[in-house]
Structure formats: structure tokens, C-alpha cells
Design a protein that fits this description.
Layout: E1 21-22, E2 26-27, E3 31-37, H1 42-57, E4 66-72, H2 78-89, H3 97-108, E5 110-114, H4 120-137, E6 144-150, H5 157-167, E7 176-182, H6 189-200, E8 208-211, H7 218-221, H8 223-228, H9 259-284, H10 293-305, E9 315-320, E10 338-341, E11 359-363, E12 369-377, E13 385-393, H11 394-397, H12 406-416, H13 425-443, E14 450-452, H14 460-468
Parallel strand pairs: 3-4, 3-6, 4-5, 6-7, 7-8, 9-14
Antiparallel strand pairs: 1-2, 9-10, 11-12, 12-13
Helix pairs in contact: 1-2, 1-12, 2-3, 4-5, 6-13, 9-10, 9-13, 10-13
């Protein structure tokens, strides 16, 4: 890695009115039209619109530039959509009059257009509404910006993108049109590539933002700074000093009414192939030549392309007892709700690992923290040891600082044109190449999950797999967040 310094740019905005940023040419001005397609669905109501509201409240969506449009098949009025959204924006029953006024002003920015996802009529009406907004808010520079957020199932991405391309593209010189698509991006390599080809035939890669909200999380975004801005870690972050890396995702609840959806995908497609693989890339990648988005994404792709094929004996699948009791789940379902997979990287930094015993933990959520497990002397007269930690707990260290929600950060990045935290097509392809052979065997019933008790650590076989990889669970040590009192 060398001992050269790592330069981190800090983009500054006016404290009075933060604005969108063109990465090459400075702040952009002019009209900004944000279109949420699938506006009446759960994703839009629970994630997209609340994220836009928080950006508005912090001054990143100036009222003299921005209008927000909802589009869906449901036939409702502007006021009906606004009322549906109000409950997701005002969580506190005792909200102040000032807070309610801010919410009311934000909702007034939202207009609703109803129409199908595969017909030009609705999208031409949407384009007409956007043009009317642009005529009122476009500056003398004539710049208009159009951001389309597809809070929709992937099955309608191709038709919706075709309608956007046909009817709703930016019509000013120097402006832009960008499309944000949600995961899942297909179900395997073939379907993901087909989807990418269909969308890629309509839009250039810089116009496409494949969103994975894990890349918007504070501790995930801190990963590169942690690795490359601290000289302590530079010579240690390799096979000689790290025995293995564990990326753990735990939930203490079952499918809870979404069994029909989950059973189509399973834990590998739903969580591991996208969210956890993003964390994997940031932990394992080489130092990029700069912090430009493409240089960072280049290194992520190189890591994925260095992963060797997964071995059967290094996979443990599980399905919790009671999963099939969900009426939306088939009685003979082979879908795993638990998976432990060893990924091996064939490159100079990571191939062949030696044993180490300290642990460095980055806790993404909840209770964001970083802590290092150390062996220290037990206080007292006897020479005995105990496991403790060096601890950076965000809630304690950064009191009064609001950590942005992932969707807030990522939507702002799309407005700024910063693709660093979005998934590039070749990265998507490389990630599916890793897991598709295993997924096809699971789908055919050739790879069976072990049963385990809901709420437990998972099948006992998973702990045996970890031991084989060189990790033994520490018993008796439990990290707890420091108290603020």
C-alpha cells in the first residue's frame, strides 16, 4: 500500500442553502423534477418520500427549484396522496406547529399523475406536468434536471424505462435525465444481464443508478476512510495479519407476511448477493488511485472477479422451524432463511491466510459502533486476563449529531451525479457470477438447508464451518453499547 497520504475531499455547501453539485463544474441551478414511480406503494411511502422530506428539511431541495411528482396506476387526487404520505412524515403525535408547517410545505411540492406503466398516454401527461413546472422554475441558464425513481418491481423496469425514454426525457441543453432502479436486479446472472441489456439499450451507464441502500449507511461509507486514512491499518490489512473476515447480518423476526415474496428469492438473493457483498468489496478492495467514483468502483469489480468458485463443503444453509407454516410459503419449500458461505479471494493481498486472534468489529446497525476486542489484564492483584475492547460508539461520541438515513444520502448523490455508492453493470454481473451456480442448485433442490430454531444463531453446522475457516466463537464476552448517563 505504501506510506503515501490519503487525500479526502470534503465538499462544502452554503450553510444557508445546500445545493446539488455537478462533480466537475460546481453547483447546479435550475429546475429539478423528482418523479417517484410507484408512488402509492409501500417502498415509496416508507422510504422514498420520507428521504426526500428529510433532504427538503435540511435545505437540499430548494423550493424555488424543486417539484416532486408521484406516478402510479392508483386513481387518487393530489390531496389524497398527500394525506396518505402525511402519516409517514409526522411520526410524533405531539409534533410542534413548526414541524407540521414544514411537512405541509413539503407536501405542497408533490403533484400526482395516474396512469399505466406501459402506455404513452400517462407518461405524456406526466411530461406535460413536468414541463409546466420547468417553465416556472428553470433559471436563465435554461438547465432542467429530471430524476426518475422506480419504486417498482423489476418486472416493469423495461416498460417504464421505455416510456421515460419515449415521452419524458429532459428537453433543455445541458440538463440531464437520471433513472434510479431498486434491487433485486434479477434472480441470477442470466436474468440480471437481460435486465441490464434492456435498460442499457435505453440509457447510458452514467444515467443509471442501481441503488443498494447499504451503500448509503454511515459506517459503510466510513469504510474507505477507516482503511486508508489510518496508518495503523495500512500494513496490517492483509492475509498475514487477518485470519478471516466475517460479515454478519441478523434479524430477530421471520417473514412476517412477506413469505410469498421471500420464498421467490431466499436469503442469498435477498441479502448476501447484494448488501453483504457490497460490504465485502469495501473491506477487501485495493486502494483506488483516487476517490473518483469510477476508480473506487473499478477496485470493487477487481475484488469480485478474484473470488474463486464456492465449494459445497464451505456452504451451510438453514431454514428455521415454522417457516413453511406461513400460508404464502409452499409446503415443500427448499428456500434458505439462513446461509453461511466462505468466499476466498485469489489475489496477492488475501490468498492463503494465517492465524490471528484479535477481533476488529464494525457494527453497521443498530447502535453504530467500531470496537476492537483485546486481551487485557483483569484489574486486581492476580495476573489473570480478560477480553475487553477499544470502543468508538457513535451514539456516545457524536451526541446531538443526526446520522442520515441511507436513502437520504443516496438520493442526494443521484442529484449531484455522484455514482460512487451505486452498482455499476460489470459489478452487478461479477456478483451474480459468484452465486448463480449455488443458487441454481438450491432452486433444483440439490442443496438442502438444515433446520434450526427461530431466533437462534442458526444451524450448529454453521459454527463448525467457521471453525474450519479458522474462527472459534468467543464465549463469555458480550459487547454492550456504552450508556450516555
Amino acid at each position: 500500500m505504501g506510506s503515501g497520504q490519503w487525500h479526502v475531499e470534503k465538499r462544502c455547501f452554503s450553510s444557508e442553502s445546500p445545493q446539488s453539485m455537478d462533480l466537475e463544474n460546481g453547483p447546479e441551478t435550475g429546475s429539478l423534477s423528482i418523479v417517484v414511480l410507484g408512488a402509492s406503494g409501500d417502498l415509496a411511502k416508507k422510504k422514498t418520500f420520507p428521504a426526500l422530506f428529510h433532504l427538503y428539511r435540511q435545505g437540499f431541495l430548494p423550493v424555488d427549484e424543486v417539484s416532486i411528482f408521484g406516478y402510479a396506476r392508483t386513481i387518487i387526487s393530489n390531496d389524497e396522496l398527500r394525506e396518505r404520505l402525511r402519516g409517514y412524515l409526522v411520526r410524533d403525535k405531539d409534533a410542534s406547529s413548526e414541524e407540521l408547517e414544514v411537512v405541509a410545505k413539503f407536501l405542497h411540492l408533490i403533484k400526482y399523475v395516474s396512469g399505466p406503466y406501459d402506455s404513452e398516454d400517462g407518461f405524456r401527461l406526466l411530461d406535460k406536468e413536468i414541463l409546466e413546472h420547468e417553465s416556472l422554475k428553470t433559471s436563465a441558464k435554461g438547465l432542467s434536471r429530471r430524476l426518475f425513481y422506480l419504486a417498482l418491481p423489476p418486472s416493469v423496469y423495461p416498460s417504464v424505462c421505455k416510456m421515460i425514454k419515449t415521452c419524458c426525457m429532459n428537453k433543455s441543453d445541458g440538463g440531464w435525465t437520471r433513472v434510479v432502479v431498486e434491487k433485486p436486479f434479477g434472480k441470477d446472472l442470466e436474468s440480471a444481464e437481460q435486465l441490464s441489456t434492456q435498460i442499457g439499450a435505453l440509457f447510458e451507464e452514467p444515467q443509471i443508478y442501481r441503488i443498494d441502500h447499504y451503500l448509503g449507511k454511515e459506517l459503510v461509507q466510513n469504510m474507505l476512510v477507516l482503511r486508508f486514512a489510518n496508518r495503523l491499518f495500512l500494513p496490517l490489512w492483509n492475509r498475514d495479519n487477518i485470519a478471516n473476515v466475517q460479515i454478519v447480518f441478523r434479524e430477530d423476526f421471520g417473514t412476517e407476511g412477506r413469505g410469498g415474496y421471500f420464498d421467490q428469492y431466499g436469503i442469498i438473493r435477498d441479502i448476501i448477493q447484494n448488501h453483504l457483498l457490497q460490504v465485502f468489496c469495501l473491506i477487501a478492495m485495493e486502494k483506488p488511485v483516487s476517490l473518483k467514483p469510477e476508480h473506487i468502483r473499478d477496485e470493487k469489480v477487481k475484488v469480485l472477479q478474484s473470488v474463486v468458485p464456492i465449494k459445497d463443503e464451505e456452504v451451510v444453509l438453514g431454514q428455521y422451524d415454522g417457516y413453511r407454516n406461513d400460508p404464502t410459503v409452499p409446503n415443500n419449500s427448499n428456500t434458505p432463511t439462513f446461509a453461511s458461505v466462505i468466499l476466498r479471494i485469489d489475489n496477492e493481498r488475501w490468498e492463503g491466510q494465517k492465524q490471528g486472534r484479535n477481533e476488529f468489529v464494525i457494527r453497521l446497525q443498530p447502535e453504530e459502533a467500531m470496537y476492537m476486542k483485546l486481551t487485557v489484564k483483569q484489574p486486581g492483584l492476580e495476573m489473570s486476563t480478560v477480553q475487553s475492547e477499544l470502543d468508538l460508539s457513535y451514539r456516545q461520541r457524536y451526541q446531538g449529531v443526526k446520522i442520515p438515513e441511507a436513502y437520504e444520502r443516496l438520493i442526494l448523490d443521484t442529484i449531484r451525479g455522484d455514482q460512487q455508492h451505486f452498482v455499476r453493470r460489470d459489478e452487478l454481473k461479477a456478483s451474480w457470477e459468484i452465486f448463480t451456480p449455488l443458487l441454481h442448485r438450491i432452486d433444483k433442490g440439490e442443496f438442502k438447508p438444515f433446520s434450526y430454531q427461530a431466533g437462534s444463531r442458526g444451524p450448529a453446522e454453521a459454527d463448525k464451518l467457521l471453525e474450519k475457516a479458522g474462527y472459534v466463537q468467543t464465549h463469555g464476552y458480550v459487547w454492550s453499547p456504552p450508556s450516555l448517563e
